[in-house]
Amino acid sequence: MAEELVHYAVERGVATITLDSPHNRNALSSALRGQLRDHLTHAVDDPAVRVVVLTHTGPVFCSGMDLKESRGANAQQQGVNEFPAILEQIWTSPKPVVARLAGPARAGGVGIVAACDIAVAVADATFAFTEVRLGVVPAVISVTVLPRLLPRAAHELFLTGEKFDARRAVEIGLVNAAVAADALDAEVRRYTDMLALGGPRALAATKAMLRRERATGLAEDFADMLELSARHFASEEGQEGIRAFAEKRSPSWVPKG
């Protein structure tokens, strides 16, 4: 039986996916990648899941690709070809994904953090794009990282490989919040509680809207957004939300208890 490197649990509508390979700093080995993909698929397909939290055991969130497996062109190419599918799963998930970091992230691990909708880290967590120092290029992770980062910071950090902390990560747009270690779980819970208040279809549509390419003209953009707005106002979910507001109660999709 294969070793379980990624755990999955659901409580009150929150699916927690935990990287548990501390012996190699939660590196993205082929086994870990496969289990992570399976659990992400399960979370998206499960109607009971409203929000996904991606977290870890051990002192490191994720150190990036497993370099031991990446020795040799064929092994490296296999990892490079598979990793984008994981980033895309997170980026396009119809359900919000929250990264919980109690420790550092490097290279591909930072790509995962950037793919998540919200990221919360302990203040002393560190980050680095170490690829250039290994003679490789942070190409794949740039797809999720560059939309988050301030351009000047992206040039600096991609080219130098310099280590930076969570407070800097907040300043440049990579992370939403940097908190004390004893406040990490409460801050993650604050976000998941807020996210669970949103209608599932509305959250999925809002995520799709946020990542869409904008129309070239204002008139076309407004027309597209008017159609999107009208469709959700008229939907069963939208009407339930409006009724709940008028009746001063929680909508049917808000988890009980």
UniProtKB/TrEMBL annotation:
Protein name: Methylglutaconyl-CoA hydratase
UniProt family annotation: Belongs to the enoyl-CoA hydratase/isomerase family.
Organism: Streptoalloteichus hindustanus
GO MF, any single term: catalytic activity
Highest rank taxon of the organism: Bacteria
A matching Pfam family: ECH_1
